[in-house]
């Protein structure tokens, strides 16, 4: 395969603009975007007439080769990325979760896991405890390792959950480093309480998962995280927004001018909780993830929030456990490993649910699936755009052809799929990653080892103007009130 490519005659879509043009690629980089580019016959030409040519998807939220202690997700950096590329996603940001040890050890562990990568990737880092060492390591991660975001779990009591004191310490540290604070927003104490109650009532099946952690539990933690971030005056990113309750807290904060980002995920937009009541345990257990998939109505509200700008980008939280692993919780929903698939399905689902239905334009689609993620994590316009100088991560979507989702044909190692049987309009026919055609004619051509680690620099646009707000606050503080000494 030559290292030059011409994508010919398609509608090139960026987040702010679309035009009919050719895209010329050399050595993995977009060189020009213009109508009627002439090339020699040694250049591979891909016809895109009548199709959309868009930046490859960036999935801001994945868990590949995630070891939860008693087991690990079935998708590693090879199978998970194969699935991603077959579904038009050309970069993902995975969570380094340093379960027993230092951030450095965690980072090195994930560096090894990611060696087989065939697409570009970045890392978020999870903070699970607080001491001087963690604080120092955070600094090292930002200054030397290309990490600009840290996730804090307000749930998973006794495992990952941190308290408000740590949350405040973490937020302050993030602010000083120019790193983005992210939260898993569920009240872990309330979840624990809810779980005990379900078990006492004899509700041990997957429906107990939803019943034990209702939307109010997510709304409370979202509100608390937002207010603490406001108190510290640092930007906040709320991962996997699953409910109207959480979304409305984000809407309110944004309206007041606070820098809060809300990330709904594919399952929250496309599914409803009724699956958790399915009489077949294996089917119901597939849908167990946290926060839970909600009642119908939440899905539509999250879609509307995306279309009106209340929420800014879509992730997946791809965290794949097969039916044998899920069966660990056959007698107790608390033991079902949490997580659903989505890395392969997100781009198709968002197109079908949001564009095909008329809720957003193709430009909005590009923004929600790629550009905004690149901006938030400070790698735009290297990623998230079809512009001269940008990485050649490109998809071709045919709006007139259809996709169908099934565990029988997907590329994940999962034996199940939460979107089994779902079909829709708009198929991603070609994926180009780093200038290589990796997905064409329903076939993958992968080169393990060609994916690169993308360093993400601190102080994204979200930090603009924060110092001004700090200065105004400091100026507003009055000198101590002088009081006359009183006797006895
Ligand atoms: O259920 C979920 N979401 N599993 C993945 C870990 C997380 O909380 O993101
Ligand atoms: Zn233009
Ligand atoms: Zn989470
Ligand atoms: Zn997650």
Characteristic key phrases:
32% helix; binds zinc ion; 15 helices; 488 residues; nine-stranded mixed beta sheet
Helical content stands at 25-40%
List the uncertain runs: none
Bound small molecules, which ones? N-(aminocarbonyl)-beta-alanine, zinc ion
Shape: globular
Number of continuous helical runs: 15
**CA-atom Rg in angstroms:** 23 Å
Largest sheet: 9 strands, mixed
Overall structural class, as computed from helix and strand content, comes to alpha/beta
Distance between the termini: 92 Å
List how many beta strands DSSP finds: 16
Please indicate the percent range of residues in DSSP E strands (runs of 2 or more). 15-25%
Assembly type of the chains comes to single chain
Round the mean pLDDT to the nearest integer and report it: 97
Please give a quick description of this structure.
The protein is an alpha/beta fold and 488 residues long. It contains 15 helices and 16 strands.
């Amino acid at each position: 395969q030559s290292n030059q490519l011409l994508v010919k005659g398609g509608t090139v879509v960026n987040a702010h603009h679309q035009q009919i043009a050719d895209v010329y690629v050399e050595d993995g980089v977009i060189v020009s975007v213009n109508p009627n580019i002439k090339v020699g016959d040694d250049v591979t030409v891909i016809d895109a007439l009548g199709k959309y040519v868009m930046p490859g998807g960036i999935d801001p939220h994945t868990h590949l080769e995630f070891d939860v202690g008693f087991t690990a997700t079935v998708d590693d950096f090879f199978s998970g990325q194969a699935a991603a590329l077959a579904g038009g996603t050309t970069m993902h940001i995975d969570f380094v979760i340093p379960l027993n040890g230092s951030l450095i050890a965690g980072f090195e562990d994930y560096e090894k896991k990611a060696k087989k990568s065939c697409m570009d990737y970045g890392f978020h880092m999870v903070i699970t405890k607080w001491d001087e060492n963690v604080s120092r390591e955070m600094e090292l991660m930002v200054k030397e390792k290309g990490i600009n975001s840290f996730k804090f779990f307000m749930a998973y009591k006794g495992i990952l959950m941190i308290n408000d004191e740590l949350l405040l310490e973490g937020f302050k540290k993030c602010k000083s480093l120019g790193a983005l604070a992210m939260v898993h927003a569920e009240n872990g104490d309330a979840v624990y309480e809810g779980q005990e109650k379900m078990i006492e009532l004899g509700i041990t099946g997957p429906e107990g998962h939803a019943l034990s952690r209702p939307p109010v539990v997510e709304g409370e933690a979202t509100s608390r995280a937002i207010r603490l971030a406001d108190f510290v005056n640092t930007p906040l990113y709320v991962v996997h927004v699953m409910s109207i309750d959480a979304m409305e807290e984000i809407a309110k904060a944004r309206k007041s001018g606070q820098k809060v980002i809300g990330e709904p995920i594919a399952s929250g937009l496309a599914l409803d909780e009724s699956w958790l009541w399915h009489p077949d345990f294996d089917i119901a257990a597939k849908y167990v993830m946290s926060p839970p998939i909600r009642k119908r109505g939440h899905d539509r509200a999250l879609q509307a929030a995306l279309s009106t700008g209340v929420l800014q980008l879509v992730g997946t939280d791809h965290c794949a456990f097969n039916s044998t692993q899920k069966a660990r919780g056959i007698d107790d929903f608390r033991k079902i490993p949490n997580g659903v698939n989505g890395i392969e399905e997100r781009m198709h689902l968002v197109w079908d649910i949001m564009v095909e239905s008329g809720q957003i334009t193709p430009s909005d689609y590009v923004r929600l699936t790629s550009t905004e993620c690149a901006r938030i994590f400070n790698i735009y316009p290297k990623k998230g755009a079809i512009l001269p100088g940008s990485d050649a991560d490109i998809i071709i979507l045919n709006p007139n052809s259809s996709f169908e989702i099934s565990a029988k044909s997907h590329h994940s190692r999962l034996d199940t799929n939460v979107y089994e049987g779902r079909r829709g309009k708009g198929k991603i026919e070609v994926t180009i990653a780093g200038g290589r055609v990796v997905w064409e004619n329903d076939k993958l051509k992968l080169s393990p080892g060609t994916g690169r680690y993308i360093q993400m620099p601190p102080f994204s646009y979200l930090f603009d103007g924060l110092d001004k707000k700090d200065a105004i606050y400091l100026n507003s503080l009055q000198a101590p009130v002088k009081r006359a000494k009183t006797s006895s």
